[in-house]
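Handoff note, outgoing to incoming analyst
You'll be picking up this chain. Sequence as last confirmed:
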Amino acid sequence: MKRAPSNDPDDGFTVEITSLDAPETQVHAPDALLQGSRLAPKVRNWLTILSVVGGIFLVVVVLSPLLSSLLPKKTNALPKPHLPPAQIQNVIVQNGVAYINSSDGTLRALRVKNGSLLWQRNSVSLAPLLINDIMYIEYYNQKNITVQALRERDAFVLWTFKTSLDSNPLIIENGVAYSLPQYFSQGHIVTALDGRNGAKLWQYTMSMAQSQNINIEGIQDKVYITTFSNAQVQNTDLFVLSTHTGLLLWHIKASNVQITQNNVIYVITGGGALKVLSANDGHEVWHYKSTNGSNWSPSPGTTLFYIQTPEGLLQALKIDTGTLQWTYKDPWGVAEVFPEVNGVLYLETGDGFIVALRTSDGARLWHVRPVAPPYTFGYVQVINGIVFTFTTIGDAQSETIAALNASNGSLLWRSKIDTYSTNNYIVPQISNDLFLADSGNVIIALRAHDGVVLWHVNYTQSTSQHYDPSLLTLVDNIVIIHSSDGVLEAHQSVTGALLWRYHS
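Most recent structure output, in case you need it:
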């Protein structure tokens, strides 16, 4: 190949390369060395892998800024709010089924024997009303209240009725009125519905202040509506309606009103007088006035009214006429009167004795002091021939249960149980020979006739310190325990064995 002429002065030199070896010893290099050595297969594989990884890294570093500018911006997802678990609000057990209301508005039906879910539905505001084999539920929104009748076994909707928010629905079944919620904080209209088909039977509008609370109760063929401003101020209106027609039979204002099953109403006037009124038309049957104008609370029995006088006497008056039947006097006075059972009235005296009086003539059958002082007054339950007394002792952190023979007052057994707080007291469930004592966070099962402890189980009580009576249910030899942490437990009543647990 010819080169182009150059002006470089050094370009005139000629270089000749010759072998340093003597001509007779000149050696030519083999062809293999001129081609270079071949790499091992394993080395080639590693170099290939490194080349691929390096290429990918280069693409990511170089192209990622460009790609991020071209792709749409991704917004950060908002964190999901932490919702508290649904709490069990109410438990109703009927016909072997537990109906559970939760705070999220869910109503579930569980078999009591094994805890299996029968059905569930949403949007149930209140505990259901169970009559025979029909379940009545109520739920509401910002516009109206909806009442539905469901078949118990499968929640099939039989009928639906909608009404205004200021209405208080009643279910009329076999001539008796049933209120879905017993207490209302508002609503001046009472609407009665036929339980068979949901048809509106009648409507009654009350004239009352907006701030008042309402209690509705159906007894026999009448609807009793009591209204009051609050629980502390005893200023009550009573409206008595006919269940069949909804017509107002009569109305009265009083300081206190007590409705009885004897077809009479007793009221206490502002001056402290007791008036017994006929439930049919409200006319006065008889009245009784304290000698010094003191206020007190009479206790109705089967045929007698029991009145504690300011002088410390207990008087028994006939309900229908007010005639004095007998008087009981105790040196320490009468502190508390408990309901009569099988012709015997039980009371507690000022020095802590439990006294059994024969209701026919007031004769004292026996008297027993279950615990020695100091104590605060307790209460009495009489079941299956046993008188169970409950007495809080000393610092109110424990309670003594004493079981007495109802015929003679002899002590059968006594047991001391620690309570959850000063606001709690033992709430028993007694069936056959089983005694369940709920102390606020422990269920203790004892044999009723001798007090032997069979088993116990802990549960979580509400932090509000107030006892919820739906926490414990005893049915068909199964103990249902409702904890405030959203757990429902079923235990075998005799052994305490856990049958099933339910989490809301």
